[in-house]
Amino acid sequence: MQSLAIVGAQWGDEGKGKITDLLGQKCDVVARFQGGNNAGHTIIVGENKIVLHLIPSGILHDHCASVVGHGVVFDPEAFKEELQTVLDSGCSVTPEKLKISENCTVITMYNRILDGQREAKGPVKIGTTGRGIGPAYEDKISRKGLKLKDLMDKDTLLTKLKANLIEKEVLFKTHYECEFPSAEEEANRLFELGKSVAPFLCDTFSFLDESLQAGKKVLYEGAQGVLLDIDYGSYPYVTSSNTSTGGIYTGAGLPGNHIGEVLGITKAYLTRVGEGPFPTELFDDKGEFIQKKGGEFGATTGRKRRCGWIDLPLLKYTVKASNITSIALTKLDVLSDIEGIKICTGYEYKGKTIDCAYPGINLEEVKPILTEMPTFHDDFKSEVLSDELKHYISTIEKFVEIPAGIIAYGPERSEIKFQKDYF
Ligand code: GDP
Ligand code: IMO
Ligand code: MG
Q1: Residues of the chain with CATH 3.40.440.10
Q2: Which of 20, 111, 144, 378 would suit a FRET pair with 54, their CA atoms being 20 to 30 Å apart?
Q3: Buried b (16+ CB within 10 A) or exposed e, 308-343
Q4: Which of 54, 138, 220, 224 has the most ligand 2 atoms within 8 A of CB, as the residue to mutate?
């Protein structure tokens, strides 16, 4: 297999960072294609924990090139901080190792302010990460966006920022009544920050093209999850990019090639950060226990993640929506020893029983059908899994009709079992 896509099969935070880092050992290029620093991808190596937001999760491997494709919205201030964190961890970051598209859309201070004001003053609170992601994508789609290459020239930057501010100024002054920097101040800030990004800027499409033509192995690293996809997700409680496989074609490029495998990272239960429907959400002690045991706090914002049982109708849908060919089932250790674990195998909806959460179904109105599963007590020290755990895994596999190629049972690189070969 020459290229593999990793996507989140739920509402994000499924463990994509860990799996990308591990498979990164076996490939030549890891490319991000969407999202921005709303992502928080955790990699644990021994005593060290590193959380990546913008930099791809292949960066810890010196043989691997990390690519930030043009579909990513890029906050140069967040990048500067993250670069320092990565360097402080002892990892080398050179222009050979990190390649950022000069066509990434810039997240400006105006985008961040707008995100914050909308969340604070409504009318609809999405529970965003407050990183300016949605407003930056709005600028891109309405053709008002700044590209990273614009940061290299102060005059261009100022001209574009002035044009960009015309409409926003009205919103800031009259609707939100909030402070905002002048175009000159923002141009100066971004121009200075551009110096940190400049060494890494290039034409990443051609780099991927040449890499694929040379037979290199490429891993596309998705951020967020399919249920947060702007088109496939639980709209409007979604992020503003195509988090599913389709986003690769527009956000990075797959010249002359096709994706050999789409690996959907799937938590053994389910979590969500922010607002929006969640049919299997737990509001009892069990939910709290899973939240604590799983350390379910947002890696970007520190918010408590909402927890619930794994929802197979939703998973069946994401498998179809993103052409997922196998899953990696993570955090099985968290469910070990818990009595009365459940999985959702269908919904009662408008007098019918359904097994796939197709679009059009109002997730606020479904009644989940929950099946209790036998408790498993695996400590994962032996190679052999208990019959109860095997049953848990095979029930999921049968339902979604694809295999669990990976099972993960701890945050460390070694706490993983490959049931299938990737790369
Ligand atoms: P991502 O956004 O999909 O990369 O996931 P996050 O990093 O936001 O959240 C996943 C969290 O679970 C991180 O703290 C990981 O270190 C941790 N993690 C990943 N896989 C496992 C696992 O199999 N078991 C446990 N207990 N933790 C895991
Ligand atoms: P990773 O890559 C979980 C959620 C936010 C909010 C919605 C919109 O770590 O899995 P945004 O700031 O993107 O406009 O927020 O999307 N969200 C995530 N939830 N994991 C993420 O990324 C997320 N990135 C955004 O909580 O509900
Ligand atoms: Mg995360």
Answers
A1: 3-103+201-261
A2: 144
A3: bbbbbbbbbbbbebbebbbbbbbbbbbbbebeebbb
A4: 224
pLDDT at residue 257 is higher than 80: no
Q: Length of the chain in residues, anyone?
A: 423
CATH architecture observed for domain 105-196? Orthogonal Bundle (1.10)
Domain 3-103+201-261 = CATH 3.40.190.10: no
pLDDT tens by residue, 289-332 = 999 999 999 888 889 999 999 999 999 999 999 999 999 999 99
Which atom of ligand 1 approaches the CA of 51 most closely? 7
Q: Report residues whose beta carbon is within 6 angstroms of any ligand 2 atom.
A: 8, 11-13, 38-41, 126-129, 131, 133-134, 223-225, 228, 239-240, 273-274, 299
What does the pLDDT average to over 223-232? 98
pLDDT digits (tens, 9 = 90+) for 163-187: 999 999 999 999 999 999 999 999 9
84 CB-near residues (< 8 Å, 6+ apart): none
Contact 223, 51 (CB under 8 A): no
Closest residue to atom 6 of ligand 1, CA basis: 13
pLDDT value at 124 more than 80? yes
Active site residue 41: yes
Delimiting residues of CATH 1.10.300.10 domain(s) in the chain:
105-196
Say what the pLDDT of residue 20 is. 96
Under 8 Å between Cβ of 338 and 366: no
Check if 153 is active-site: no
Q: What is the pLDDT at residue 383? A: 87
The answer, as to whether pTM is greater than 0.90, is: yes
**β pairing state of 41-45 and 48-52:** antiparallel
Q: Which residues surround ligand 3, an ion (CB under 5 A)?
A: 13, 40, 299
296 C-alpha vs ligand 1 centroid, how far in Å? Answer: 9
For a pocket test of ligand 1, which of 6, 10, 13 has the largest count of ligand atoms closer than 8 A to its C-beta?
13
For the chain, where do the domains classified as CATH 3.90.170.10 start and end?
A: 267-418
* CATH 3.90.170.10 for domain 267-418: yes
Instruction: Tell me the β-bridge partners of 11.
Output: none
Longest dimension (CA), the chain: 67
